[in-house]
Write a sequence for this structure.
């Protein structure tokens, strides 16, 4: 039904770089042997309720909740998970039907039926949490439960990307008895039907996952338990890996640590797995700000910023410069910002400002979060300040906050310019454009773009063969370049550092680069 392989091959491909000397014969062995596998990450959940999360909380959700569709290893389009089958039942891609597996239950024994699915989706829209994923359901009109096992989604408009939305952890199925229809769950507990049960949770510190014996889905668990430890920075996380306090690190490795692991003299008890990344880093300009709201100011910033220097000097080439919001590896990727602005050129930037009547240095305050996108973030913003001020055209003030209060700030429109990272909801160019435009978007700053929202996106969503929508996305990106409301900086690569005793890391990332911890296991023979 969907032909996305052409655009996703690079994202789905995972290449392993082994730093382990020697080799041997490995077997799965007893999954319980050696105790829980301990995973370290700098991406701590902001919530345990799927209706409140449009962020990195999905890393945990993927493993403790279940969605109708998901990504078995190697899949680049959604496949059934809690569902037995799903399909559009009309030629216009407006009616989507799923039949659930038989005998599904939540971890507390309650039945997971069609009413539970309807409840889970309806409450996302009813609650409409400020940081929640209601924006992903813009095309949904209503959900219909037919009997115990049939769910029918009626869409307002054609939307070939809707199966990809259902595969996001935001659409996790929750127990109606424990998750109110009109408010978020507040007791800090979880009732899911995923591969694991959340046995215990210490916010910001650790999550203890144990096998869910009632799980019915595609995941073949190669371990019985996983502990996820949350770190504030890469240095502490890598030290814990070297000290054998954790078995594997994911999300948040600093460039210096990656380079050290890649070096020939690296610790032979460790391995590094490198994969193509789908995450991006970008700046957001607030149109309500006196200076950031001026197109000439935004374009002048775009003309000055040196992405290649950022990628090399700050990130040690562990990221790639990015010149469009859609990253390399996806159908529709362009190099629009480079095509329009070329190499960094302060003289051209000065001309842009002068033609707009701006002759004095422009005061701008750039905000960033201290604990979300890795320890290089602060250094990145210092480099941006250096580049912009070296042009003689800007006076830059840097400010920062921890993630939770940072989110509240940009949702209230407090920041003139702020940094964001984006890990895709699903691997399609649509998801690098649609969330950021329109009156209600993921950034809290309205961005009316009628050509994109009323023509290009609706037309592209009528096309199931995603390779056929390239022209629409190229045009949408050119509009983003002209507006310069969003300024892409870099595209990441994915790195997993692990003990030499751990296998499965190269299979553990889905196309949205979310870790499926059930793929991890200990090698038991050499």
């Amino acid at each position: 039904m969907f032909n996305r392989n052409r655009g996703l091959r690079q994202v789905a491909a995972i290449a392993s770089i082994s730093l382990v000397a020697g080799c041997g014969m490995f077997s799965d062995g007893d999954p319980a042997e050696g105790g829980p596998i301990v995973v370290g990450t700098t991406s701590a959940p902001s919530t345990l309720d799927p209706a409140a999360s449009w962020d990195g909380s999905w890393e945990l959700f993927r493993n403790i909740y279940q969605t109708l569709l998901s990504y078995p290893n190697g899949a680049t389009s959604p496949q059934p998970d809690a569902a037995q089958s799903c399909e559009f039942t009309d030629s216009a891609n407006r009616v989507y039907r799923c039949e659930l597996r038989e005998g599904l239950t939540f971890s507390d024994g309650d039945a997971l039926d069609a009413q539970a699915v309807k409840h889970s989706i309806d409450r996302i829209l009813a609650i409409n949490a400020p940081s929640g994923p209601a924006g992903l359901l813009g095309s949904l009109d209503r959900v219909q439960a037919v009997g115990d096992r049939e769910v029918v989604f009626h869409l307002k408009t054609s939307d070939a990307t809707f199966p990809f939305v259902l595969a996001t952890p935001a659409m996790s199925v929750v127990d109606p008895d424990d998750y109110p229809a009109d408010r978020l769950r507040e007791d800090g507990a979880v009732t899911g039907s995923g591969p694991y049960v959340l046995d215990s949770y210490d916010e910001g510190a650790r999550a203890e996952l144990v096998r869910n014996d009632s799980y019915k889905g595609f995941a073949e668990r190669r371990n019985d338990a996983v502990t996820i430890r949350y770190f504030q920075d890469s240095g502490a996380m890598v030290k814990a890996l070297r000290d054998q306090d954790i078995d594997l690190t994911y999300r948040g490795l600093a460039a210096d640590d990656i380079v050290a692991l890649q070096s020939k003299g690296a610790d032979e008890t460790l391995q590094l797995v490198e994969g193509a990344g789908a995450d991006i880093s970008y700046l957001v300009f607030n149109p309500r700000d006196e200076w950031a709201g001026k197109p000439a100011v935004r374009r002048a910033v775009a003309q000055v910023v040196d992405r290649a220097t950022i990628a090399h000097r700050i990130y040690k080439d562990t990221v790639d410069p990015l010149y469009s919001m859609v990253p390399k590896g996806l159908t529709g990727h362009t190099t629009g910002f480079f095509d329009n602005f070329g190499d960094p050129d302060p003289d051209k930037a000065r001309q842009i400002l002068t033609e707009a009547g701006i002759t004095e240095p422009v005061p701008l305050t750039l905000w960033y979060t201290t604990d979300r996108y890795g320890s290089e973030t602060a250094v990145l913003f210092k480099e941006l300040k250096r580049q912009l001020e070296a042009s003689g055209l800007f006076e830059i003030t840097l400010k920062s906050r921890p993630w939770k209060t940072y989110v509240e700030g940009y949702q209230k429109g407090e920041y003139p310019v702020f940094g964001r990272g984006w890990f895709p909801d699903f691997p399609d160019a649509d998801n690098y454009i649609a969330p950021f435009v329109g009156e209600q978007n993921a950034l809290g700053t309205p961005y009316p773009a009628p050509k994109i929202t009323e023509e290009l996106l609706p037309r592209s969503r009528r096309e199931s063969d995603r390779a056929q929508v390239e022209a629409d996305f190229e045009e949408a990106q050119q509009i983003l370049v002209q507006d310069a409301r969003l300024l892409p900086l870099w595209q990441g690569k994915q790195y997993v550092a692990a003990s030499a005793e751990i296998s499965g890391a190269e299979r553990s990332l889905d196309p949205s680069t979310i870790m499926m911890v059930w793929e991890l296991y200990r090698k038991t023979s050499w």
Summary: The first helix runs from residue 5 to 12. The chain has two domains: 43-229, 278-493. Residues 49 and 184 are 7 Å apart (CA to CA). The radius of gyration is 23 Å.
